[in-house]
Amino acid sequence: MEKVVLSKFSKEELIDFIVSKGEKKYKAQQIFSWIWAKNASSFDDMTDVKKEFRAFLNENCTILDSKIKLRQISKDGTIKYLIEFADGNCAETVLMRFDNRSNLSMCVSSQIGCKMGCKFCATGKNGFKRNLFAHEIISQILHAQIDTGLKITNVVFMGQGEPLDNFDNVVEALKLINKNLQISIRRITLSTCGVVPKILELSKNELLPTLAVSLHSPNHALRSEVMPIERKYDINALHDVLKIYNQQTKDRITIEYILIGGFNDTIECAKELINYLKDLKCNINLIPYNPIKGDKFKKPERNDMLRFKYLLEASGKKVTIRLERGADIDAACGQLAGRLNK
Ligand code: SAH
Ligand code: SF4
Predict the structure, then answer these.
(1) What's the rounded Cα separation, in Å, for the pair 156 and 118?
(2) CA dist 42 to 6, 8, 54, 150, Å?
(3) 81 within ligand 1 shell (Cβ under 6 A)
(4) What are the structural domain ranges in the chain?
(5) Relative to the alpha carbon of 158, which ligand is closest?
(6) Ligand 2: which atom is nearest the Cα of residue 191?
């Protein structure tokens, strides 16, 4: 018989389940806190649970149904994990530690592979396998917490996959991260390539994460060249729905813009971007392009990158250049390819 995976449950569901197996309600609450607050990796860690009940749990239940298959630690402290799920498929997840900040950010994957086919992205090149279930998304955070003994404070959906192409599971995962792991919804960022109808649906959700949008160009022709989604939902439709999302939240949207040398880093491109963003509440995150084996794009020149940044700042926007994290272990943006999947 398959074991019951306890990390799938909301607090209420877990309590009902434990009580239905004959334990007291306060014990159920203790078990909830072992799993979600105290980083228990096994039922034997749960020292205040009776031996007989632990034996029952060991026999019939499991906390997680996935495992860490590989761990790589970068010189800069970034840790990349390859998580293996029950069916043998793997996805990568990255823990980002900064020595000058107390934040601990986890970059999670939402799918095995991705259907969106962006030309500059290693995940996109590998094609699509399947969606991750909500508890499989959550498991990435729990594994990192158990492994490091630390408490994750921020979650970004910027790993493998397009989160809005796996809407129901991602919305369920947002709920578990917020309610069970007690991470404020504002500290959860969902990055999308711009699946317009799903952004609209998300804007009506009970929990509104911080939205990040992979724009990369506000020019239809240029964007179509590298992002197939632009041919389905173009930048005008995207602009309209971002205004709606802006109205629903008090937070700014993050506009992600990969700077690709000679492609979208010119003065003209900066002006077009300023115009596109002028009525949106947003910050801009410039991401220097990370070269992928065998493709034609170039890293931006440092000078062009700084020029781009100054032009945007002069328009009154807050602009950051994304630090390259974990480059030595292929954990940087767009590099997560889940190489062990066949
Ligand atoms: N599918 C979502 C989230 C995952 S990708 C999305 O596209 O937004 C996370 C970020 O990495 C996106 O902004 C994506 O455009 C960026 N990215 C992909 N490939 C990259 C590369 N080679 N160099 C730099 N950033 C890249
Ligand atoms: Fe998918 Fe995002 Fe990569 Fe595009 S950039 S292929 S949407 S993971």
Answers:
(1) 19
(2) 11, 16, 10, 17
(3) no
(4) 4-62, 67-341
(5) 1
(6) 2
Q: Is 123 in the pocket of ligand 2 (CB under 6 A)?
A: yes
Rounded to the nearest angstrom, the distance between the alpha carbon of 121 and the centre of ligand 2 is 6
CB 18 less than 6 A from any atom of ligand 1: no
Cβ count within 10 A of residue 228: 16
How far apart, in Å, are the Cα atoms of 226 and each of 32, 191, 194? 45, 17, 13
Pocket test for ligand 1, best of 126, 167, 193, 214 (most atoms within 8 A of CB): 214
**H or E element, residue 92:** strand 90-97
Which tens digits make up the pLDDT trace of 24-73?
999 999 999 999 999 999 999 999 999 999 999 999 999 999 999 999 99
Report residue 287 as tokens.
Answer: 């991401």
CB distance 162 to ligand 1 below 6 Å: yes
67-341 homologous superfamily? Aldolase class I (3.20.20.70)
In DSSP notation, 214-271 reads E-S-S-HHHHHHH-THHHHS-HHHHHHHHHHHHHH-SSPEEEEEEE-TTTS-SHHHHH
Q: How far is CA 30 from CA 2, 36, 147, in A?
A: 24, 10, 21
What is the number of the ligand closest to the CA of 292? 1
Ligand nearest 264 Cα, by number? 1
Measured from the CB, is residue 121 less than 6 Å from ligand 2? yes
CATH assignment of 4-62, given 1.20.1250.20, 3.30.565.10, 3.40.47.10, 1.10.150.530?
A: 1.10.150.530
What pLDDT digit, counting tens, does each position of 247-291 carry?
A: 999 899 999 999 999 999 999 999 999 999 999 999 999 999 998
Residues paired with 211 in a beta bridge = 190
